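Appendix B: complex inputs.
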Amino acid sequence: GQNIDQPTEMTATEGAIVQINCTYQTSGFNGLFWYQQHAGEAPTFLSYNVLDGLEEKGRFSSFLSRSKGYSYLLLKELQMKDSASYLCAVLDSNYQLIWGAGTKLIIKP
Amino acid sequence: GAVVSQHPSWVICKSGTSVKIECRSLDFQATTMFWYRQFPKQSLMLMATSNEGSKATYEQGVEKDKFLINHASLTLSTLTVTSAHPEDSSFYICSGRGQGITEAFFGQGTRLTVV
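Resulting structure:
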């Protein structure tokens, strides 16, 4: 079967750094997405990785290791507005998005 | 990124009535539209995938006669919840993808409450 695992919930302090991990087992791989979703809103795109390595985009970075079936989203200089759920999703061999359950990130002052 | 406009943002309807949700791709041609449902504190659940001009492919456990999907044009797809029941209350989100593009763009979502 296809499986995406990520922690259910994480807590971090404003101004700090947090890393949200995602491991996957899918039938084929055509890239991995990270989305941010605030409560009651649709997900918004953060990053897309299809090659191994680190992609940096402002305060957010995403890393991928295809051999390990592993990715992480790194958030630096955390702000209160970063409190949200972060969804990991993999595009499988049929170009279908397989979604993780999401990680709820709580930022404390 | 590209824009998918979804309406309405929220709707309250009586049990037994039907509700139509529209998704329009404003600046790209959405050859494929995905319809998701999300219950509180849960991840997105794919309901169906539709390609423009073709019948939608429904996920296991999703009633095709209850959730009618139309994708007659490259810029418009609709989901109609027929004979709605309180258990259909959920957050419905569409996502459109263009030909040869891997990223899918989300609509704003529709909060459906059936009373």
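The first strand of chain B starts at residue 4 and ends at 7.
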